[in-house]
From TrEMBL:
The lineage of its organism: Bacteria, Pseudomonadati, Pseudomonadota, Gammaproteobacteria, Pseudomonadales. InterPro entries: PAP2/HPO, PAP2/HPO_sf. Gene3D superfamilies: Phosphatidic acid phosphatase type 2/haloperoxidase. It is an enzyme of class 3 (hydrolase). Pfam families: PAP2 (PF01569). The keyword tRNA processing does not apply. GO terms for molecular function: undecaprenyl-diphosphatase activity. This is undecaprenyl-diphosphate phosphatase. The chain crosses the membrane at residues 12-31, 38-55, 75-95, 102-124, 130-147, 159-177, 183-200, 212-230, 250-269. Keywords: Membrane, Transmembrane, Transmembrane helix. It catalyses: di-trans,octa-cis-undecaprenyl diphosphate + H2O = di-trans,octa-cis-undecaprenyl phosphate + phosphate + H(+). Its EC number is 3.6.1.27. Residues 39-145 form the Phosphatidic acid phosphatase type 2/haloperoxidase domain.
Length: 290
C-alpha cells in the first residue's frame, strides 16, 4: 500500500501528534482563540502525556521491527500505548467537545483518524498500540466531562492545585519503573506553571481577544514568535544554571507554563493586541464565547 504520496500524507498527519506541534498549537489557541477551552486542553494534554509515558514503561511492549519503520523520531521508546493516538483523541475530539460545531467535529474526527492510521502506515505502532492509546484518550475525555461539573475544584485555592500536581508528580517519579523520560518532569512543571499563571492572569488581567479577527491572528503570530524566542532563551539559561537534568526540566516546564498563561498575555495586553474583559465591554466588543 505504500507510495511516496501516501508516505508524505502519513508524515503530515503524524506530525500533528508530535510535541513540536502540540507545544505550539495549544498556546496559539490559548492566545488567539479561546483561552478557557485551550487551558483545559493544555491540562488534558499534560496529564495524558504523563500517563502515556507511565504506561509505556509499565508494559514495555516493543514497536514493530525497524526494517518496516518509516518514522525515525520515536527513538528507543516502547509502543504500547500509542502516544499519538492517545493525544490525538484528547486534543482533537476534546476540541470538538469544547466547540460543539458539526463542521469542526467532522474535521477533528478526520484528523484524529488520520493521525491514528498514520502510525500504522509508518510502522511506528502495532494495531493494539493504537487501539489502547485511543481508548485511554477517550477514557480521559469521559472522566474530564464528568469532573467538569464539580464547581468546587476549579474554584479551590491555587495552592491545593499546585500541591496535588507536585505530590502526584513526585510519587510517580519515585515509583517509576526505571528512569522516567525527561518530558515527564517537564510536564509536571508545565502544569504547575500553567495553573499558577492562569489564576494570577485571571485576577490581574482576565484578557480576551474579542471577536475582531485581526486581534486573534496577530496575537497568535506574536505569541508564536515569542514562544520561539523563549525556547532559545531557555537553552542559554540551561547552560548558565547547570542544574541536574530532572530539576532543569521541572524549572523549564514551570517557566513555559507561566509564559503561556501569564507573561505573553500580559505583554499582548500592553501592546494592545489583547484587551482585558473590562476594557472591551464598554466599546461593545463582545467577549468571545468561552
Amino acid at each position: 500500500m505504500r507510495s511516496p504520496e501516501l508516505t508524505q500524507l502519513a508524515n503530515a498527519f503524524t506530525w500533528l501528534g508530535y510535541g513540536t506541534f502540540l507545544l505550539f498549537a495549544i498556546p496559539i489557541g490559548y492566545w488567539g482563540w479561546n483561552k478557557h477551552s485551550f487551558f483545559r486542553l493544555l491540562l488534558l494534554i499534560g496529564i495524558s502525556a504523563w500517563l502515556n509515558a507511565l504506561f509505556k514503561d509499565i508494559f514495555q511492549d516493543p514497536r514493530p521491527p525497524l526494517a518496516l519503520r518509516l518514522d525515525d523520531r520515536v527513538g528507543a521508546s516502547y509502543g504500547l500505548p500509542s502516544g499519538h493516538a492517545q493525544l490525538a483523541v484528547v486534543l482533537w475530539l476534546g476540541l470538538a467537545y469544547e466547540v460543539r460545531r458539526l463542521w469542526l467535529t467532522l474535521l477533528c474526527t478526520l484528523i484524529c483518524l488520520g493521525v491514528c492510521l498514520s502510525r500504522l502506515y509508518l510502522a511506528a505502532h502495532d494495531v493494539e498500540d493504537v487501539l489502547v492509546g485511543a481508548l485511554l484518550g477517550g477514557a480521559t475525555l469521559l472522566i474530564f466531562a464528568r469532573l467538569r461539573g464539580l464547581a468546587w475544584w476549579p474554584e479551590a485555592h491555587v495552592g491545593w492545585h499546585v500541591l496535588s500536581i507536585v505530590l502526584v508528580g513526585a510519587a510517580s517519579l519515585a515509583l517509576w519503573p526505571g528512569e522516567a523520560p525527561d518530558y515527564v518532569p517537564l510536564f509536571v512543571g508545565l502544569l504547575v506553571g500553567a495553573v499558577v499563571g492562569w489564576r494570577v492572569e485571571k485576577r490581574l488581567l482576565d484578557f480576551s481577544a474579542g471577536v475582531v479577527l485581526w486581534r486573534r491572528v496577530l496575537a497568535a503570530v506574536l505569541g508564536a514568535l515569542g514562544f520561539i524566542l523563549l525556547q532559545k532563551l531557555l537553552k542559554v539559561l540551561e547552560l548558565q544554571l547547570g542544574l541536574q537534568p530532572m530539576a532543569w526540566q521541572v524549572l523549564r516546564g514551570v517557566l513555559m507554563g507561566l509564559f503561556v498563561t501569564l507573561a505573553m498575555p500580559w505583554l499582548l495586553v500592553r501592546m494592545r493586541v489583547l484587551v482585558t474583559r473590562t476594557a472591551c465591554a464598554p466599546r461593545g466588543e463582545a467577549v468571545a464565547a468561552e
